[in-house]
């Protein structure tokens, strides 16, 4: 019976060794599969981050271009406003000059009319005196 017990023990040891080898092999395959999955996830994350970085840079560039265009428009409006204010000032001066000239012309005409009126009145008076 000793031989039989030895055989049973030997079989049990062999089974344990085989089981241990099987578990070690399963553990290795499981670890390899997890490593592969982690590497794929890492690659996907890196890819997404790269795409996000590209999109972010594109958005920044587009916003910078729009900002530059907006600043150009603002500068153009400011320049137009300055030109209009300058032209407005020039026109005000011209209008004021024309008003002064018109006032002077009115006064000159008024003086001429008063002089003519006075001359006519004197002429009329002198003719009236002659008639009497």
Terminal Cα span: 190 Å
Series of H and E elements? H
Classification by helices and strands: mainly alpha
What is the share of helical residues?
Answer: over 70%
Rg over C-alpha atoms, rounded to the nearest angstrom = 56 Å
Oligomeric description of these chains: single chain
Which whole number gives the mean pLDDT?
Answer: 91
Question: What overall form do the CA principal axes indicate?
Answer: rod-shaped
Strand content: under 5%
Uncertain segments are none
Query: What is the makeup of the main sheet?
Result: none
Supply the number of helical segments. Answer: 1
Quick one: how many beta strands?
Answer: 0
Can you walk me through this structure?
The protein is mainly alpha-helical. The protein has a domain at about 60-125. The protein has one helix at about 1-130. The protein is rod-shaped.
Brief characterization of the structure:
By secondary structure, the protein is mainly α.
Topology:
Layout: H1 2-131
List the defining traits of the structure above.
single chain; 98% helix; 132 residues
């Amino acid at each position: 019976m000793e031989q039989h017990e030895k055989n049973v023990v030997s079989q049990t040891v062999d089974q344990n060794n085989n089981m241990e080898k099987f578990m070690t092999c399963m553990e290795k395959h499981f670890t390899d599969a997890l490593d592969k999955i982690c590497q794929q996830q890492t690659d996907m994350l890196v890819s997404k981050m790269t795409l996000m970085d590209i999109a972010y840079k594109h958005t920044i560039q587009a916003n910078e271009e729009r900002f530059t265009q907006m600043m150009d428009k603002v500068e153009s409006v400011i320049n137009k406003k300055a030109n209009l204010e300058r032209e407005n000032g020039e026109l005000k001066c011209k209008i004021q000059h024309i008003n002064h000239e018109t006032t002077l012309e009115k006064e000159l005409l008024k003086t001429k009319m008063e002089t003519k009126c006075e001359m006519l009145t004197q002429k009329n008076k002198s003719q009236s005196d002659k008639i009497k």
